[in-house]
Amino acid sequence: MRFDIITIFPEFFDGPLDHGIVRRARANGIVEVKLQDLREFTHDRHRTVDDRPFGGGEGMVLKPDPLFEAVEALGGVAPSSGLTFDMGAKTAVVLLSASGKLFSEQVARRLSQLERVVLICGRYEGVDERVSEHLATDEISVGDFVLSGGELPAAIVLDAVTRLLPGALGNEASSVHESFSMEASLESSGRAKSGGAAARKKAKGKKGMAAAASARKWVASLAGGAAPVPGGILDCPHYTRPAEFRQWPIPQELMSGNHEEIRRWRRFAALEKTLWNRPELLARTTLTDEEVVWLEGLHAKSGK
Q1: Cβ atoms 179, 270 nearer than 8 A
Q2: Among 151, 172, 193, which residue terminates a domain?
Q3: 8 Å CB contact between 9 and 149
Q4: Range of the domain at 97
């Protein structure tokens, strides 16, 4: 897979590219990363990439012509040729912008299925809107906050997508059994459904069914009015040696050696952590009746 990063600060990526998973993936030929200095596509003596916004206002806006020329050059299109720009279905041109759609694990997985991703690092007050409308296939934000440029978001997207590629991680299961993993969420829920005799017994009868229905309405309300989007929950808590640290022991279930008991503990611990830290995710995942009733009771008991 190839990444092309268009930026006015190519030296910024000396650190992110030379450490951790991205470095190993590059060394093993899993990913190729090319840096493109946007100023190389300017045509004035000052190598100007920005200008004042029409209509007035603060800050400077990145000009469209250097960005179009930079991306077109990557696609083998000469700026003076007049050819229609098209890099193909297996390529995404991503504009990193505070105004973009929120980056998520699902977006990362979609990008990981491509052959090439071009990352345009926004800068200054913004980027000429024609870049978003006519050049970028995606406009992405890494969070509900504003950064001074798109270099940090580009490094985040690069790392998140690279670790999903086959061979990038030492253990392929690592990208499945973690926060926001749709596969792990469905797998855990499926096992709970197939092996949860207690859950089925609890759901029997009108009282049990009514409790489950009520709990599901409460879980749905956690989305805050947002439309349900497929996604996973947070990862379960993890512990390592020593088994007791400063009088804080690890959960006994993890010491039991019973795989089903450990799986069940991890599932409910993950649900609890999601409830306290990212409750809106619960409305977007598959839950059993037992789980929704337990979550509602846990929330009511906490008084939060």
Answers
A1: no
A2: 172
A3: yes
A4: 2-172
